[in-house]
């Protein structure tokens, strides 16, 4: 089931999305959905079960802690 939302976008971002839609001959909605999908956090169910708890723990760490691990 799809949900509808209303967003207030900065004009510059809106124009970039609109330009991309026109250049790729896609709807603005398709371009926005693709951008959100690519930029969204991963879905833990896409990860093998044995790694899910480890990734979930990493997701809760602060940036400084993640840099130390890296």
SSE ordering: HHHH
Strand elements, count: 0
- Please summarize the sheet with the most strands: none
Chain-averaged pLDDT:
92
Q: How widely separated are the two ends? A: 39 Å
Question: What number of domains?
Answer: 2
Low-confidence stretches: none
How much of the sequence lies in strands comes to under 5%
Fraction of residues in H or I helices: 55-70%
Oligomerization: single chain
Q: Which structural class is indicated by helix and strand composition?
A: mainly alpha
Radius of gyration: 17 Å
How would you sum up the global shape? elongated
> How many helix segments?
4
Report on the architecture of this protein.
The protein has 70 residues and is an all-alpha fold. The chain has two domains: 10-39; 42-70, no CATH class. The protein is built from four helices and no strands. It has helices spanning 11-24, 28-39, 49-59, 63-69. It is elongated.
């Amino acid at each position: 089931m799809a949900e509808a939302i209303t967003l207030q976008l900065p004009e510059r971002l809106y124009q970039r999305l609109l330009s991309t839609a026109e250049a790729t001959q896609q709807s603005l909605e398709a371009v926005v959905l693709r951008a959100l999908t690519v930029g969204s956090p991963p879905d833990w169910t896409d990860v093998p079960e044995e790694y899910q708890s480890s990734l979930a723990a990493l997701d809760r760490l602060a940036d400084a802690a993640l840099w130390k691990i890296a």
